[in-house]
Amino acid sequence: MRRRELLLASGAALTLTGCATPAALPELRGTGDLGVVIERARGTLAIVDTSERRVIAEVTGLGDLSHASVVFSRDARFAYVFGRDGGLTKVDLLARRITARIVQAGNSIGGAISADGALVAAQNYQPGGVKVFDARTLALVADLPAEAVGGKPSRVVGLVDLPGRRFAWSLLDADAIWIADLSEPSSPRVTKLEGIGRMPYDALVTPDGRHYIAGLFGEDGLALVDLWQERPAARRILAGYGRGQEPLPVYKMPHLRGWAVAGRRAYLPAIGRHEVLVVDTETWAEVGRIPVAGQPVFVMARPDGRQVWVNFAVPDYDRVQVIDTPTQRIVTTLTPGKAVLHLEFTPRGETVWISSRDDNRVSVIDTQSFATVATLNVDSPSGIFFTARATRMGL
Do 106 and 82 meet the contact criterion of CB atoms below 8 Å apart? Predict the structure, then answer.
């Protein structure tokens, strides 16, 4: 009897082994080396493989992507795409298709996902305010109108996620910063900081989640909030940096999400100046300025902080410059293509991907040698977003 049981067990094992042949299994892969590139002219999302350095799929039907941003689910499988037309689209990167889409506003410029991955929030220009959705179904769970003086709606900028189910954002038309706790989405608790400075136009949260910083277009300086304080308040920092005494025309607003934090220093784009500001993140005092080729738009640190890469507004938007942070000097100037709109580092920084909209090209550049190691043909590429963002705050 024992012999018979052994023979049956051996046969079952052989059967199971036979069922597990590679041909019988679906394609299995992770999402850690995936990303997306916005094809702004066609309302299309290109899914890219950063290991193989190629486009592996395109997903169409995402609406107006002339200004678009992306956040990722905690497991990095789903991309949430915020479009200029108010569309919020959930894309499955593995199935390579749209799984849900809503048009939640008339004009939207970005969003954020909560730390637990349960809530997706959209910041809106029209009709203003913030709307919060269930990340699984895109069902609306909270509507937070933003009001300016006289009860008029305010455009919202600088929306970021904070530790816990919290978000912070700035009110462009109300000179305010709001912080919302959505632990109970049906009963949001909102802290309103008024009079923070004129016309906040974008904002960021530092990597440790402690400081929320809003750029001010209506006056020199920035507004900083220490979120670790029991009763947060906004204070001005870097007064007088902005346009300086001889203001230059501002052809494109800097994107503050691109501010680079490297060690104890932050590298910031100066509005209306051909300079990158260097700031001590302990005191938030300016400690230097680095002259650059034009008006900086994105100022982004390589993940190890050794380099800071900068792109520019017109007429210098075919260039990218690299700052060596130990020496605070420009070490190279690259010309990857016409109309450089965005840069994104691979998770460990061995390459940077750069979109050149007018050349319909994404260049992959080695950050040690500065050699172009690959090019991808992509129609009118703009934003580049890799799934490593799923593990980082404020992106």
Answer: no
The C-alpha atoms of residue 381 and residue 46 are separated, in whole angstroms, by 9
Asked whether 120 and 111 are in contact (CB, 8 A), the reply is yes
21-35, 86-100, 119-133, 223-237: the lowest-pLDDT one: 21-35
> pLDDT by residue (tens digit) across 156-191?
999 999 999 999 999 999 999 999 999 999 999 999
Q: Which of 129-133, 150-154, 299-303 has the lowest mean pLDDT?
A: 150-154
Helix, strand, coil share (%) of the chain residues, nearest 5: 10, 45, 45
The model carries a pTM of 0.91
Calculate the dihedral angle through the C-alpha atoms of 88, 92, 95, 98, rounding to the nearest 10 degrees: -10
Does residue 250 have a pLDDT over 70? Answer: no
| Cα–Cα distance list, 323 to 171, 246, 247, 329, 364 (Å) | 33, 25, 24, 5, 18
Confidence class for position 14, pLDDT limits 50, 70, 90: very low
Please give the DSSP secondary-structure letter assigned to residue 187.
S
Question: Using one digit for the tens of pLDDT, what is the confidence trace for 219-233?
Answer: 878 999 999 999 999
Give long-range contacts, CB 8 A cutoff, 24+ apart: 142-151.
Answer: 142/182, 142/185, 142/186, 142/188, 144/178, 144/180, 144/188, 144/190, 146/171, 146/174, 146/178, 147/174, 148/173, 148/174, 149/173, 149/174
The helix or strand, by DSSP H or E, that contains position 290, with its residue range, turns out to be strand 285-291
- Separation between Cα atoms, residue 30 and residue 188, nearest integer Å: 35
What letter does residue 281 receive in the DSSP assignment?
T
Structure-token pair, residue 262: 């490297």
Q: H-type helices in the chain, by residue range? A: 2-19
| Cβ burial 95-131 (10 Å sphere, 16+ → b, else e) | eeebebbbebbebbbbbbbbbebbbbbbbbbeebbbb
Order across the sheet with 87-92: list the strands. Answer: 69-72, 78-82, 87-92, 97-103
